[in-house]
Design a protein that fits this description.
about 300 residues, Rossmann fold, globular, alpha/beta, nine-stranded mixed β-sheet, five-stranded mixed β-sheet
Length: about 300
């Protein structure tokens, strides 16, 4: 029986050569994406910035609607068609999107590392990436075996394919599918499929390729139940992330505990976060980088 760990965890991502959280505060964050620096809204940055002056190449100005909207104000030098970044062996395109993102989620880097650790030594593991976006996670997992990448957005799947080409991974065993994640998962259950690992990053609200409506609170229990049916006692993990909802990680941890009760392993939950890059002080003392929370997660691991 899978054991639920009630004490929450923090999975903190550190910056790397092509990305870093430079500073945060007063509801905003300053990040570097390769040679460019951008300011974006961040409601959870309730503290004060540590840097007196943020020098940036662009800022996302949110709209009046709390559910979205807004626009970028960009320096003319910023490439409007994107630029290349790298995470480990994966090369991908970053770009200022209308939804304030830049083509990938840097707080997922520790999750990619963790999943590959769960599959260490494998080159035949079958994994499923639901709501796979632009494919950085799928490309990271492909070093461990075949990956099925599912997203309802034609544009996101096209970008994922482009990222595979940028990484020289066109020949990796990845199925790129434009599909409704919940309907695809239900069909996989009927087909009797199984996977060694599943990662899913469902939005708060979304639409499938043929107009299907997704609402997280309504659809998540059924989707996780179907994901459970695609796993067995030899599977290694399920990782669920949830953004932008008023929900506790303990709630989604409890959902996994109920649905995974018949499997061995451990269920954990907590926050994803990104650590600020430490700043040099006047006395040349190093100040600890603060942790900026970005999402909640729950995971089942069988190790």
């Amino acid at each position: 029986m899978a054991t639920l760990v009630t004490q929450p965890l923090v999975m903190a991502g550190e910056g790397w050569q092509d990305y870093g959280l430079v500073d945060s505060g007063h509801g905003r964050k300053l990040e570097r994406y390769g040679p460019w620096r951008f300011v974006r809204p961040e409601p959870q940055a309730m503290w004060s910035p540590r840097l007196p002056d943020w020098q940036a190449h662009g800022e996302f100005i949110p709209g009046s609607d709390e559910d979205g909207g807004g626009r970028w104000q960009l320096d003319p030098m910023v490439p409007r068609d994107g630029w290349q970044l790298k995470w480990n062996e994966v090369t991908f395109a970053a770009q200022n999107t209308p939804f304030r993102h830049l083509g990938f989620f840097p707080d997922m880097a520790p999750v990619w590392d963790w999943m590959r650790g769960q599959l260490a030594g494998r080159d035949d593991a079958q994994t499923l990436n639901l709501f796979g976006y632009t494919g950085v996670g799928s490309l990271a997992l492909s070093s461990c075996g075949p990956v099925t990448h599912v997203d309802a957005s034609k544009k996101s799947v096209a970008q994922a394919r482009d990222n595979a080409a940028l990484s020289g991974m066109e020949d990796r065993p990845i199925r790129w599918l434009i599909d409704d994640a919940a309907k695809f998962t239900a069909r996989e259950v009927r087909r009797g499929k199984r996977y060694d690992g599943i990662i899913l990053d469902p939005p708060k609200f979304g639409r499938g390729p043929t107009g299907e409506t997704w609402r997280l609170e309504e659809g998540l229990p059924g989707l996780i139940a179907d994901c459970r049916r695609l796993l067995d006692a030899d599977s290694r993990f399920l990782f669920l992330t949830v953004y932008a909802v008023r929900m506790s990680s303990l709630a989604i941890g409890g959902l996994l505990a109920e649905l995974f009760a018949d499997l061995p392993g451990t269920i954990e939950h907590g926050d994803l976060a990104v650590r600020e890059e430490a700043l040099r002080q006047a006395q040349d003392e190093r100040e600890d980088g603060r942790l900026l929370p970005t999402a909640i997660f729950a995971r089942w691991r069988n190790d």
